[in-house]
């Protein structure tokens, strides 16, 4: 799995993002999304996923799920949050959100 980030400044500065990973099942702010059925080489349009935090189409390339999340950042956010690095093969559990 490769998690990419698209930073944005939310209207509500208290807006947060939590992601929990279990295999290719992601729980985003308490809502579960199961990407296990997505076959290699396939693309799932972001418009087909009812999640405001999924920014682009989700793909599976060479077995890796590639997903881009909108990342809410505050006006005084750190460099790491404003210019986040991809997370490659995160372990199961809470995904470390750039702060």
Model description:
- The protein is mainly beta and 99 residues long.
- It is built from one helix and nine strands.
- The chain has a five-stranded mixed beta sheet with strand order 5-6-7-1-8, with no helix packed on it. The protein has a four-stranded antiparallel beta sheet with strand order 4-3-2-9, with no helix packed on it.
- A hairpin with a 2-residue loop joins strand 6 and strand 7.
Give the strand order, joined by hyphens, for the main sheet.
5-6-7-1-8
What is the strand content? Answer: 35-45%
- The shape is globular
**Count of helical stretches:** 1
What's the domain count?
Answer: 1
Main pleated sheet: 5 strands, mixed
- Written as H for each helix and E for each strand, in order along the chain, the element string is EEEEEEEHEE
Indicate the percent of residues in helices: under 10%
Ends apart, CA distance between termini: 21 Å
Strands, total number: 9
Quick check: average pLDDT?
94
Structural class: mainly beta
Radius of gyration: 13 Å
Low-confidence stretches: none
Compact overview of the structure:
By secondary structure, the chain is mainly β. Helices cover 4% and strands 38% of the residues. Strands 5-6-7-1-8 form a five-stranded mixed sheet, with no helix packed on it. A four-stranded antiparallel sheet has the order 4-3-2-9, with no helix packed on it.
């Amino acid at each position: 799995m490769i998690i990419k980030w698209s930073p944005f400044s939310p209207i509500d500065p208290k807006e947060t993002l939590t992601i929990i990973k279990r295999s290719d099942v992601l729980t985003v702010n308490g809502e579960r999304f199961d990407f296990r059925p997505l076959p290699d080489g396939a693309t799932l349009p972001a418009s087909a996923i009812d999640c405001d935090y999924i920014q682009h189409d989700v793909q599976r390339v060479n077995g890796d799920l590639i997903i881009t999340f909108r990342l809410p950042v505050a006006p005084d956010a750190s460099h790491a949050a404003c210019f986040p690095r991809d997370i490659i093969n995160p372990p199961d559990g809470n995904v470390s959100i750039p702060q």
